[in-house]
Amino acid sequence: MITLGIDIGGSAIKGALVDLDQGKLVSERVRYETEPLFKPRVAAELVEKIRKKLDYHGVIGVGYPGVVKKGIAYTAANLHKNWIGTDIAQLLSNQTGQPITVINDADAAGLAEMRFGVEDAHLYKTVFFLTVGTGIGSAIFVDGHLLPNTELGHLEVRGKEAEHRASDAVRRQKKLSWKRWGKRFTEVLNTYESLINPDLFIIGGGISSKFENYAEYLKIQTKILPAELENLAGIIGAAMAAKEAELP
Ligand code: BGC
């Protein structure tokens, strides 16, 4: 089964055809950069451009960086406020002529990691998946079941939202050393530990491939592993969500 997965991010929209049996990309990854705070209309045009380029017909899965319920966006932390209240599924379906399923981007990436990424992730009772990039996204799994839209990147950590304290964007903007960023990220993880007490953390997003640079600075009790699918997880998970939504 081949399905188109799309990942809407703060600075780019990416898409590829995904083989859902293997959890692998079977086309090139098409990527369009976006202006900061782009609006839904712009995204709709780019999604259609990706679909045409990959010559795809069928259900499309889309990961969106905010709370999304039944295809409608409820938040837009790092995007234009016009997204809030937008029926993304309807908008993209009108633009592409295809059925659309929309899911939070971190939830999508977490689904893909649980199924095709970190080996044995499903053996842990509670898994806390994080995606660290422009923002911080969270996806919590209990016995392999996702608790959607947890949004713990916005949890307050010592008076500041977690993602304003320790996202990858903050690390770059403030030119933090790995040691200093690791200290900040530790505070975030400690807060999650005291709230959820997970059995495993998985760190996804662009920063997952640099795990060896900061692992030694993370002073936490819980086991922690880097994601395996890196930033392809969002695309793969979005495609998985579309397929699942099709089931009766
Ligand atoms: C959004 C989340 C998203 C995360 C990562 C946060 O700002 O609120 O929905 O998962 O960024 O993109």
How would you sum up this structure in a few lines?
By secondary structure, this protein is an alpha/beta fold.
Q: Could you please describe the fold and organization of this structure?
A:
There is one protein chain. With 248 residues, the protein is α/β, with parallel strands linked by helices. The chain folds into 2 domains: 2-107 and 232-246, ATPase, nucleotide binding domain (Nucleotidyltransferase, domain 5, 2-Layer Sandwich); 119-227, Nucleotidyltransferase, domain 5 (2-Layer Sandwich), CATH 3.30.420. It is built from 8 helices and 15 strands. Strands 1, 2, 3, 4, 5 and 8 form a 6-stranded mixed sheet that branches. Helix 1 packs across helix 2 (88-96) and helix 3 packs across helix 8. The longest helix is centred in the last third of the chain and has 19 residues, at 178-196. The relative contact order is 0.18. The structure holds beta-D-glucopyranose. Residues 65-66, 75, 77-78, 104-106, 131, 135, 137, 151, 153, 163 line the site of beta-D-glucopyranose.
Q: What's the topology here?
A:
Layout: E1 2-8, E2 12-19, E3 24-25, E4 30-33, H1 40-53, E5 60-64, E6 68-69, E7 72-73, H2 88-96, E8 100-104, H3 105-116, E9 126-132, E10 136-142, E11 145-147, E12 156-157, E13 160-161, H4 162-166, H5 168-173, H6 178-196, E14 200-204, H7 211-214, E15 223-226, H8 233-246
The structure holds beta-D-glucopyranose.
Beta-D-glucopyranose binds at residues 65-66, 75, 77-78, 104-106, 131, 135, 137, 151, 153, 163.
